[in-house]
Amino acid sequence: MNTNHSYILNLHKINDNHIEALREYAVNHQVPIVDRNTLEMIKQIIRINHTTRILEIGTAIGYSAMQFASVSDDIQVTTIERNSEMIHQAKSNISNNHYSHRIRLIEGDALEQFDKIKDQTFDMLFIDAAKAQSKKFFELYTPLLREGGIVITDNVLYHGFVSDIDIVRSRNVRQMVKKVQQFNEWLMQQDGYTTNFLNMDDGLAISIKGE
Ligand code: SAH
Ligand code: MG
Question: Is the CB of 34 under 6 A from ligand 1?
């Protein structure tokens, strides 16, 4: 972690909210919640683009869903999670922090839940689930995104492996990293989207629909 990174992290920490208390649990239990500086970037995009309807793929313990919802009382988050232990944690966190009325948790594999939300539209899609499946999530759910809406894909640099695959020994991880590389290049070439990539934390891609 370089000094600029820590410096900015500490500036953001000045405005820590109550949800931030969950980060310690996540770190201790290896739950990969969104990094802090990335989160602040996304919250700023939510403000800039007047985002109120958010779809998230990958809830985990509900941390990012609640952080997004905390930006404004108008925000409604729909979030999908397949892991039963995570679902249990998310439900309890969302209820304890009084976000149940603004966060809808959909239980099951995101690739099978389209019918439950297909009548809705969204201002933002946050893709943060199984990294090898990001392209499938993008293809399935972006038809629900309004023109001018934003897709944010997290972990596009995946531990630095994506830019330096030769350091990866495990065959499974290599397969996954290749998928992320393919996704990033595919995303960059999507007609109807303008994408930029940020070298922040684990990497994120910001795609704007219709420009
Ligand atoms: N967005 C959260 C972190 C999500 S971690 C945050 O920043 O706070 C990724 C989560 O995606 C894990 O809990 C995992 O169980 C879930 N996941 C992975 N693949 C999935 C799929 N196909 N459908 C639903 N959830 C999935
Ligand atoms: Mg992530």
Answer: yes
Domains of the chain: 3-209 (3.40.50.150)
Between the alpha carbon of residue 92 and those of residues 5, 26, 101, 127, 164, the distances in Å are 32, 14, 13, 23, 39
Coil vs helix vs strand at 106: strand
Which residues, 6+ apart, have CB-to-CB distance to 79 below 8 Å?
55, 56, 57, 58, 59, 62, 65, 90, 103, 104, 105, 106
Closest ligand 1 atom to the C-alpha of 111? 22
> If pLDDT is split at 50, 70 and 90, which confidence band does 2 have?
confident
pLDDT digit string, tens, across residues 155-173: 999 999 999 999 999 999 9
**Ligand 1 near 16 CB (within 6 A):** no
- State if pTM tops 0.85: yes
Q: Cβ(209)–Cβ(150) under 8 Å?
A: yes
